[in-house]
Amino acid sequence: MNVIDALNRDQLKDGVPQFRTGDTVKVYSKVVEGGKERVQMFEGVVVVRKGGGAGASITVRRVAHGVGVEKTFLVHSPRVERIEVGKRGIVRRSRLYYLSEKIGKAARIREKKAAK
Fold it and tell me: CA-to-CA distance for 116 and 94, rounded, in angstroms?
């Protein structure tokens, strides 16, 4: 067994939910302002999921005040407190870069119905 693989496995978080691109997620990240630290929530659609293991990252997109905002988070970072999955989306691509050109209702993603 490789030493690097063992170190990466130790750094993985336990409570990361299963999600894909197209899903709407809430990412709670720790933000340092001055001397204080607080938790800030960022909710949006997962546009890209890159990498694997401890270096896995996601890009989340939302529209705030008519302006599209994209943020990239490391999934297993100590700065990310937790990730909650809201809606499951039905998409046919692994990277949804086309959403940046869409506005309003055109940027909607079909929602997967919950099994009862």
Answer: 27
